[in-house]
Design brief:
about 190 residues, alpha/beta, two-stranded antiparallel sheet, binds zinc ion
């Protein structure tokens, strides 16, 4: 049986729950396309079955911030996902802040191992700073998902060098996440 991986592209294109902006980029546009590339990579591998939270770029999930998050989590739970990956870009008022990090519900177990492999793969491929993996039990999408869940912050949209990488090579970020997943499952 294929391993079911739910890919949440983090934010809406407009309306509630839009993402961060910086250096002429919108987080929700970056996460949409990275998620779509990751979906294509996983779908081309018979070991996996993937599902996107935003199946096209105009989909708006929920009517406010909390229902937007709930819609994504409920969709993954209902689908019976085996793993949940939420894709984001980081933002800071300090333009020097940069790098890749991920959040998980707790610092042990499958999600933590998967998150570390994904962060390591992104930093290796994209040349971003490795900030590590942190427990963030308060995050809704980590707390309410019924399966191991990883929230990955690809890079800082507010940092010029990171933003250029997000703009110029979204496929590279997606491929690195894919490589992390392959390493996790040993396939
Ligand atoms: Zn975000």
């Amino acid at each position: 049986m294929a391993i079911k991986i739910y890919i949440d592209q983090g934010h809406n294109p407009s309306g509630p729950n839009t993402g961060a902006e910086g250096n002429g980029l919108k987080e929700q546009d970056v996460t949409y396309i990275v998620g779509r590339y990751l979906y294509d990579l996983l779908s081309s591998n018979p070991n996996f079955e993937a599902k996107l939270s935003r199946q096209n770029s105009s989909v708006i999930l929920g009517t406010n911030n909390s229902t937007s998050l709930r819609t994504r989590v409920n969709d993954a739970n209902r689908w019976g996902a085996d793993y949940f990956i939420s894709i984001h870009t980081n933002g800071s008022v300090n333009p020097a802040g940069n790098g890749t990090e991920a959040y998980v519900y707790q610092s042990t177990g499958e999600a933590f191992t998967l998150a570390k492999l994904i962060v390591d793969a992104i930093t290796y491929r994209m040349g971003t700073q490795n900030r590590g993996v942190f427990a963030r039990p308060g995050l809704y999408v980590l707390r309410k998902t019924a399966m191991p869940a990883v929230l990955v912050e690809l890079a800082f949209i507010s940092n010029y060098d990171d933003a250029i990488k997000l703009r110029d090579d979204p496929y590279g970020f997606a491929f690195a996440i894919y490589q992390g997943i392959l390493q996790f499952f040993g396939v």
